[in-house]
Fold:
Amino acid sequence: MAKKNPSDLAGSARRSWKTEFRRDWVVYLLFVPIIVYEVVLHYLPMFGIVMAFEDYNVIDGYFRSPWVGFKHFIDLFSGEDFPIAIRNTVAIGLIRCTFGFVAPILFALMLSLINSKKFKRVAQTMSYMPNFVAAVIVCSLFTQFLSKDGPLTMLLTKVFGAENQNWFANDQIPVFWIIYTLMGIWQSIGWGSIMYVAAISQVSGDLHEAAALDGASRLQRMWKITIPSILPMVLMMFVINVGTALAAGYDNILLLYMPSTYNVSDTVYTYTYRQAFGGGTTNYSLSAASGLFQSVVSTILLVGSNALSRKAAGSSLF
Structure:
């Protein structure tokens, strides 16, 4: 066979791209707002990383603020509360990547077992609602319910014999971590199950029919057919969850914690907030240094979990 000239292949690629663009230009047009959003709000602000290496002030700006190298990183890492913040961040991240990650999958699988379409739609809709409740309201509700005289506290005390106390003021490990994780599960279990529900709906009904004819129960079909079919989606979401493990919902923690529970509730985000903005002065450079540190760690976690997923199951995010 005669080999094709590379110039002919390049010309063909150019022609096919132009043909595709003329045919689908409306689809490309829909991407323009997304591209503008990403560039303006994500890529351009990346230049602000230089603040981490400067004694930044608003008057001098990026280009005239004095360069101090790694001074702010040293200040961040040498803080006496930083190891505690790292421990709490890692602990909360691990709990979220296990119990918090599994909960939406179990919920989606439970929905798949419901025969009544009307009941399934109602259950899904109700499970989505907490996701749209403001963090301030959610934290206020849980604070009231778990206060010393709150209904959940009374239930734990009267039924299970637990100590009557304000649970958010408990500084024992792992009380705050568990409460925070359960609060996150309640708020996001429905919203987090959307991807899994969609993946389950794409599983071939013929496979279930054939398995049912062979005498497989519904649980056996779920274990042998549904779960293996949605495994690539599960692994993809797991990689994303690991990559965002450090982002331990700092807004909720900021609303829930108190000085007496800093030792169990202070995370890297809240620690940075107190160090950079809580002492009467504003230290943008320390905040930028913390953000850069967390971005680097998150990237390493994302790449590492993706590599493990590709090696263990042959499926990965990228």
Q: What stands out?
A: The radius of gyration is 25 Å.
